[in-house]
Amino acid sequence: MTSAEPPETGSVVHGEPDARQALVDRISTELDWLAVAPQHLERVRLW
User: Does the residue 1 lie in any domain?
Assistant: First the structure.
């Protein structure tokens, strides 16, 4: 999967903590995008 312009940050917000972190790691490694898994009740700016 590729994109002309990657997002500034990707937030992985669904799934168990270990699975979320695994997806963050894969996005970071395979797509070279900044990805994060916010903590429970943490607020993130969408745009």
Answer: no
Distances (CA, A) of 22 to 38, 39, 46: 13, 15, 22
Are 20 and 11 a contacting pair, CB within 8 Å?
no
> What pLDDT was estimated at residue 47?
77
Whether 30 is in a domain gets the answer: yes
Instruction: State the maximum Cα–Cα separation within the chain, in Å, rounded to a whole number.
Output: 32
**Tell me, what amino acid is at 30?**
E
Instruction: Please indicate, yes or no, if residue 32 is contained in any of the structural domains.
Output: yes
Phi first, then psi, for residue 21 (nearest 5°) are -65, -35
Domain count, the chain: 1
What's the pTM value of the predicted model, to 2 decimals?
A: 0.78
